[in-house]
Structures are given as structure tokens and as C-alpha cells.
Amino acid sequence: MSYHLGWHGGVHLTAPVSGANTERVRAIADGTVVFARQPTPHTDDAHHPQNYRGWTDNGCVLLRHETAIGEGANAQDIVFFSLYMHLGSVQQGIAAGRRIYRKAELGQAGQIYGETSRKIHFELLCDDANLAKLVGRISGELDTSRDGRVDATYGAVCFLLPANSPVFSQQPVGHLAAAHFQPPKPNARALLPPLVALTATHNTSAPLIVELRFAAGAGAPGQRGGLAITTLQLSGEVVGQVQQEPEAEYGLYEQAGAISRAIHGAAVPASATVYELLRFGRTVNSAHEAATPNTVPHWRKISYPGGEGWVDLNTQGIHKYSDADFPHWDGWSLIDDSSDGNSRCDSATIKGWLDANADGNVTVSEATAAMADAQVARKLAKAICKFPSEWIASTIDTRWGWLMQESVENTPAMSAADFQELKAHITAFCFDVPELTSATWHWHPLEFIRHFRKCGWLSLNELCQLLPRRSGSNAQQVSEIPWATATARFTPYYLHLNTTMRKYGMVSRIRQTHFLAQTYIETALWRTMEELGRAHQQRRRNGQLYWPAPAMQYYQAFYGRGAMQLTWAGNFDKYGTYRAFANVGASHQYVDNRITRTSTHYWGDPRDSNGVVVRQPQVWWPRYDPHDLVSEPFYACDSAAFYWVSTNTGGGRLNIHRVADQGLTTDAVGRASVLVNGGGYGFSERQGYAVYIDRYLGDGVESDPTRTFVVTYRGRNHNVYVDFTAQRPR
């Protein structure tokens, strides 16, 4: 807003300089052009409406975007708009109705009030219905009398601790809700001493917010798999020191397993259920995860006023939220108390932030000083404000007529002649489209982008664009996947793939790129969830039978299944234990008839380094049917992420995120490939898929249509060919 309290619908951005040129203006997301206008040619006529206080370009593009942030009607089919105003030129071919894709060039930034640096005015806006989807409400603060939304969950997880919550000075054992301490052994050969009950050393005197923010691959090297625990007052004021758990995210699988194994009794929670608790503080995916009872604790070390200690975040009375709830303690506010329909901010909330002497009036000097204050600026940046668009010509008099009236906020008043000159200036930028009438909620564009970068949810269209249109070993040997095929392949899986990536922390673009690139080769680009050939012997032309891969002879019926092609009975057993799958009934017939009530199978490669079989097979029955990882899309996706987070990357350090978080380097992709496949199969393809995905999921603006490069691994050169033909509906 202006110092005269005039609403301003967006921000002015300066185009970065790149060499002798400035960067082009690009679309922030996939969308459809609602309106486009080439700029009026520059003129030196001082009386031209666009020469008001210096030349201002009027080229503009308005885009309509559709996206999703979660599952269910209130988190999908979300519509918002982005506006790019003051363009010095608009890209040829940009016209109403045209489909535009993320990072597509829209034009060149122009001039604003005669400034020589190229700038644009940038807005993000939506209507009431879509604000409700994006934020979860359309007015007021977050309702703290109940848990937050689960249809969309991302970013930090927040816990509202009620007053009188007990805090313990010593770390309790992880699997007991009643706080106990485990004394150490007196010597190496002794048994563990009995547990000692702990007494709370502090009870909170007021409600507190405990925020858990997993690094999710962000931050400095060595800190990308950690957890930061911040305590806040309901006002948002930070309490004490931020508690750091450097390996917490990488270790969630091990922590969940340890808690599950230590619990005894009739209702032992599956490790998968405990993992959900540790990640989200509650069960989010209730369709596939059991509810976590309060008897399963979630102990974390927190700060409180005057000290620090351990609290159980899974006790009754603690409500849970995430960044998807736009909590007020994080600074978010919905400003809808300026409803007179003009372009002057009459919001009592905002004026209260600016009114330094609390006399009920905001002078120009007060507004100037307040807007320069960092704390006020943070509040304004996270204020989602409802006011009419400034680009509708028919409402200029209604919206700006107050400028001709003297007030504390508006002094001196504008003369009628000056107002007519201003009106002509404003009219030069106006355009009337129905969308501007209803989309009256304005976001700070940069805060909008920063916030939703935490989400990581990919709509079906966004996901399909990441499947290569053309791929092959070189330009002469390529196969093509049409859009309809890509859509058909992902449709059964995209919701489950998203919930899987959300649960296991594949929310950064780098982690998603690594993960998806590995699934592409394992599933033949999401064509199948079971190994081609299903590990049967093949027949040569001379009639002789052979095993296409040496290990196939030993894993046979436990061939690759799921999006990461889980292989060997041992891995299927491990996954079944993680999910606590029930045994099959006595009459069950396994889909693969090589598995029977008495058949035996190798849990892993039974051969030693000399190729001699040294391990014994075991009976699989009555465990679950491995075909579940093929027939159930959720298990196909979940098993892939299970393998990802449970795999030893070396030295007993589990979780392939450790490798992915090294970045999108050929070394990191290569190491992840070996960890997934165990050998060199598809090494070049995995490298190429990662580069392709990054082209469309990452932020780079490279435009080479194809690329060839060489990766050296274990002394061998691998030629990699990438065709960047866009996967589009055509």
C-alpha cells in the first residue's frame, strides 16, 4: 500500500541483468492466458497519460492457473491468477485462450515512472472459493479448538500445547507414554537396571506452540536431514533456543521401528503407523494408515520460558497443524475489514499496525515509519487482503474519489483537475475481464511462492509433464510416449505417489527428481509395476533355456514389484513387517503359483563371492501375497519409498535421501542408481531421466533441445543422451 493508505495489489520487481541483457519475464506456473496486451509505443509527449510522472509501459498478461495442494475436493482444482503488468513487450503469440507452461517467456519488463531499470508490477490473486481451498478458511485466525486440515499437509508441523503440560528434564524411553528413564548398565555384562519413573520438573504456565520443521533436503551440507524444533508463544514470539536434531529426518525409519518393536501387548502399532506419527504428529493418510493411540508417545526436546526439557506431543488435548493451515502465530492474517469498495485501506487491523501513537489516525509520517519497520513489513507480507482490483476502468471514480477529500491519511487533497489527469493515467493500464471482479483476495506474490514451495504436491498434469516424450540411447534410437499414454500410466498412481512423497520427505524438487528418475527405469516409465518376464527362464533359438539375469535363478517368484521393484523374499518380508501385514488364510492361493504353503525361497542372494550357494531358503507362507505391490497402487508407491528410506548407504547409515541431498550431480545420481539397483543396469538412462525431470521441475531456463554427455563410473564411460521434447497434451 502507499503512504496515503491506498491499496496496491502487488509488488514491483526489477528484472535481473544477465550480461548485456535483462532476464525475460516468465510464467510462474502452468496456466491459460486470460488477457494479453502489447504495450503502447513510447512517446515523449508530456501530456500522454502514460507519461504521468515519467513513462510507464502498459503491456500486460493475466494468467489463470489450476493446481492442487493435496487430495480431496477442498485441496484440488484450485484456481488462482497471476498478473504481469508494465511489460515493455509481450511475447509474440501470447493471446487469450492460449495454454502457457511454467517458465515460458511472457515478454520483457518495461518502465515504471521513467525509471531506467526494467521492472514489472506482479500480482497473485484469487476469489473466495479458492481462498478457502488454499488457506482452509476465508476469515479470521486459525481455529485452535480442533486439529488442522489433513487434506493438505506440508511444511512445518505445529503442536498447540495446553497450559499445564508436563515437561521432563531427562529424556524418557521412546516407547512409553508414561515417562520413564532407563539407567545404564553398571557394567558390560550386567542386565539393564529396572526403569525409573520420572516426575515432571516443569508444567507450562500458558499455551505454547511447538514447531517441528524437517530440513527436507534444504540448508547447508550436513544439515539437510535434520530437524529444528522451535517453541513459540501464541503471538509468534520465539521462546528460548531452537532445538536441533541433526539426523532426525534421515533416522525416522529407524526411530519408528525401534518404538514399534519395543511396544508389547495386543495393539502393537506398525512401524509405518509410527513413522506417520513422527512425521506429521498424527495420522494424516487415514485411508491407509491406522490411527495412532495416545499410548504411543512422541517425545521431543523443547524450549520453554526459563528452560528446556522433554514433552510427549501425542497426549490428549494437544492439537496438531501444519503450514497448510496458515497459522496466525506464523504471521498469516486474512484482512477483509476494508469493505467499502474503494482503493483506500480502511482496515482497522492494518491501521492498528501503522498507528504508532494509537490515536486512531495514521498520518503519512506514521505510515512511512511503520512500513520501514521490519516487524510491520513481515506482518504486511503475510497479510492476504481483500480489496477491489485497480485495473477496472469503470470503478476508478468509486475507488479513487477519496483522493479529492482532505483527511489525516490524505493530505493535501487532490484537485479535481489533478484527479482527472490521474484518472486518465490509471485508465491507460485498465482492462475489464470478469475474473478481476471476483478475484479480490491479494497475496504478497513472493510470500505466496515461498510458502507453496514447501508443498511439493504435483497435480496429474504436472506429474505427466515429467515423463519424457521421447527417450532413447541416441537421436536415432528413440521411443515416444504420447500425452494420453502418460496420463493413463500415472492416473492410477498419482494420488498415492503424492501421499508417499509427502510422508517420506520427497518434497524438494531435488529429492523428487532423484526419486522419480529411479522409478522410471524400474517401472519402464511407469508402464508396469512388476518385473518384465516375471523372472521366468527364457528360451534361446536353439531351444535351450536360460536365466536372463544370473540372480533371477535364485529370487524367482520374488521378482521385482512396485515402483522401486522390490526384489528378494527378504525385502518383501521386511516391508511386510514394516506395514504389519496380516498373514493370508489357509486356503489362499498366491498369484504366482511358485509360492505355495511349502515352497522355499531365498531371502537374499545365497551365493558367496565365489558363486557358491551358502545360504538356505525359507518357507514364505503364511505371509502376505507379494502381488499386493502390483495390484494395490498405494503399496506400489509406498514400498518404493520404504526401500528408499530403509536402504543402507554405507556404514550402516540408512536412507538414500543422504545421497539425493548432495544435489543433482552425476555422482549423486550414479550412487543412488547403484543403491536402488545394486549394479549398473540402466545407469545411463537414470542419468538422463534425472536431467530431463530437472528441466521441467527445476528452476533452470536452459533451452537446448537435446543434450549428450559422458558419465564415468567405475572406470567405464557411459554415454547419456537426453531429448527435451516437452510432454504436452497434443
UniProtKB/TrEMBL annotation:
The keyword Cell wall biogenesis/degradation does not apply. The keyword Ribonucleoprotein does not apply. InterPro entries: Dup_hybrid_motif (IPR011055), Lysozyme-like_dom_sf (IPR023346). Transmembrane segments: none annotated. Keywords: Kinase, Transferase. GO terms for molecular function: kinase activity. SUPFAM superfamilies: Lysozyme-like. This is Hydroxyethylthiazole kinase. It comes from Duganella rivi.
